[in-house]
Amino acid sequence: MKNGIKLIAAFMLVAGTACAEPIVKKLPEPVLEGGRPLMEVFKERKTVRKFSSRPLDDQTLSEILWSAWGISHNGKRTIPTAKNEQNLKVYVIRSDGAWLYDAKDNALLRVSDKNLMPYFNQQNFMKAVPVNLLYTGSDAKYSPMHAGSAYQNVGLYAADKGLHNVVRGYFDADGIKKALNLQDGEEPLISQAIGW
User: What class, spelled out in words, does domain 23-195 have in CATH?
Assistant: First the structure.
């Protein structure tokens, strides 16, 4: 009887999900050439807590996400991962909803159509931020290291392009976990505000 109820509940969940039209936003291919010399970028990398509300264009967003968690060669990521587990996820939080970055297809998969930016707006400078990246992982030991590598890459990209960014642990982690319906031990690790 219990198995029958579970099966019916699972079917209803799948049926309900199948009726919802998933939104996939294909991003332009990142431009992987050019840029300033690496040592110059190291020198320019900094945290800036002042943002305009000017949105990031899709080309810039594509390059930010590729820098954080893209696929660079032979299925490998742009950052190292312990035991090649690749268990990090990068969510893009904007006023038009929350999106999961799909590196394989260089696309965004919408996971929520709600504006989840208020979960990150505990400080006044966050009110104008156009994009917030949320790094999540399911491995308490290695996922935070992976997130650190990802946000460092984004910080270096920002320095090269003249973008502002700040890495933050000050956000409503429980609230965003529920809002994104994170499963299977996936936990919010750190966020990164980025914009002009």
Answer: alpha beta
